[in-house]
Design goal:
By secondary structure, the protein is mainly alpha-helical. It is built from 7 helices and 2 strands, in the order αααααβαβα.
């Protein structure tokens, strides 16, 4: 059985009023302004666009528009602390109209990170989509229903690792995890 990702159920996403329709299609600036459209709003698109902007910025390091765009993507795409620090550095002295707001955001993230205790928090609860198959085909379902599933042995090894790390609450979800026969052994 093949997996089909159907995004046709998403509402149409007309270009927002602020879009600059005069930009060349597929230019960096056009792709940047269209990054929030449902078909483009994903880590792979953000990563590819980040790479394009990195290359362009390497040849034009003083381009404030590119600095702003790159900082924005670094903060939007599952930002790590090094990414936040890089975004803050890019925004330092940037004259783009939106740069002050982003710089404040990056600074706030850095302040909260500096205020965290040195010891990491203990994860106590894990939500695990153990078996994402389901006989229903609900319109609008968020589940992609991939074919790859863990084996019972892999599932038991994962449970052992979670327990070793101090997890006390395990929420088994899916699809319908009760359709996976080994679920009772894992639980």
């Amino acid at each position: 059985m093949t997996t089909r990702l159907d995004i046709s159920i998403l509402p149409p996403h007309p270009q927002r009023a602020g879009y600059d329709r005069a930009l060349a299609a597929e230019s960096i600036t056009d792709d940047f302004q269209r990054r929030l459209e449902p078909t483009r709003f994903n880590p792979a698109y953000f990563t590819a666009l980040t790479g394009r902007i990195e290359q362009a910025l390497a040849t034009a390091p003083g381009d404030h528009e590119l600095r702003y765009q790159l900082a924005c993507l670094l903060l939007q795409n599952n930002a790590t602390l090094p990414a936040v620090e890089r975004a803050a550095a890019l925004l330092d002295g940037c004259t783009h109209p939106g740069s002050r707001r982003l710089a404040d955001l990056a600074g706030g993230i850095q302040q909260r990170a500096a205020a965290r205790p040195a010891t990491p928090r203990q994860v106590r609860r894990v939500n695990w989509s153990l078996h994402n198959r389901c006989p229903m085909a609900c319109r609008g379902c968020y589940n992609a229903f991939v074919d790859q599933q863990v084996t019972p042995g892999q599932a038991l090894a994962i449970v052992d690792k979670l327990a070793a790390h101090g997890v006390t609450d395990l929420v088994i979800a899916g699809g319908d995890p009760l359709l996976w026969e080994p679920v009772y052994d894992v639980v």
